Amino acid sequence: MKKPIQTLGFVACVTFAAQAIAFNTSQTSITQDENRADREQGIIRFIHGPAVRPYPFENHASLIFLKGEINGKSVNILLDNGSTSTILSENAAQRLDIETFATNDTIETSLGQLQKRKTGLVELKVPTQFRILSSFSIVDFSEVSRALGRDIDLILGNNILGQIGYLVDPTYESLIFAKSGGLRIDAGLDEMITTELSDGRFDAKINGLPARLLIDLGSNYELTVYEHSWAKFFAGRDAEAQAAKTMDAGGNIASVPFLTGIDLKVSGFSKSVVATQGKDSDTSSDGHVGTKFFRNSVVIIDEKAGFLFFGKRPSENAGG
User: Fold this and answer.
1) Is 91 exposed, middle or buried (0-12, 13-18, 19+ CB in 10 A)?
2) Can you give the pTM of this predicted structure?
3) What is the DSSP string of 7-21?
């Protein structure tokens, strides 16, 4: 059973057992005026009000779904910092009667390369968190939605997420979006790790070998190692590999190799994980960690401020 979420002024406390985690959000300098007539295109406006409140999400297939609004109408949002852009589904654009324009461009997402159209200016809002007036790419998500068993109206991508800080708490299925540099956890977690993010990447070790990894919350694997780096870490282990199912941008299912019992170390934190093989043309990264790496942890990602934080929750039965 989930514990209640409490808010106190500008400090949001997520209560668990007899302890609390304090989130220092430093939001006093953010414009709060909901009625500004001069909302500049592309400017993220935080709308927390007098108290920063954690916002609920739903864990579906180990992916993060939340409710938002486009032009005041409800939409299902998939959080995916692995997508370079924020993307509105073709079905949602039609349902919301949003005008779209054809382009010759494609877009990279965690699900692959997709052809895109664009909207005119629309307002995206995550209630109690932020709003932004912008133009978004349009892609047909129907096959992906069908394969996931869940409608995707909008992918919230890194063109927005990369400009802010955000906290994800999988245990309580809640998150906070805040100004870059405005989130930190003061106490209440075990094995609290902060590591540098440079161009969205962080240093790690896979089986003792140096690795450069991304964070991709649009991936529901623990660790994905790209094909160009697979042999670097796992040479001679092909016979041990098992097959996992993965889905591409068209909703097609394919099998990829994976290995268990892989040692992944980030700063002072070490974890035995499952490594799945993936594809990526970016040879500056060896792979990425996905949502399952952060289960039972609280994570703050702030690419603009250049840091990744995560900490494990203490056992609720400890001492009892």
Assistant:
1) middle
2) 0.84
3) EETTEEEEEETTEEE
